[in-house]
């Protein structure tokens, strides 16, 4: 196994971790202070739907990186070169958004998490 292969597995694991967090938000768990600006402890219904969609997107992001580094094979129809750049840029912007959040909890927890995933994705994308 090479370094990039392992990094993509780590990225996928972190995407699953954050997806589980988003599912918990969508189910009404009182974790809203860690997400979406921290305006709500329990997200309102519309934002719960957004969290559920975010969970699916995060799982897709992890899948794309596994496909890009050939951890998963058999999905050759899916070109990942552009997608990994889009995801990496998105994660960079997401890290900045978390850093500027009014929620102290979001800044302290989600910013480093998002930043870490962004750096890993950038290393993979540039390799």
Automatic annotation (TrEMBL):
Domain of life: Bacteria
Transmembrane segments annotated in the record for this chain: 6-29, 49-68, 74-96, 108-126
Keyword set includes Transmembrane: yes
Keywords: Membrane, Plasmid, Transmembrane, Transmembrane helix
Name by which UniProt lists this protein: DUF1304 domain-containing protein
Organism the protein comes from: Alkalihalophilus pseudofirmus (strain ATCC BAA-2126 / JCM 17055 / OF4)
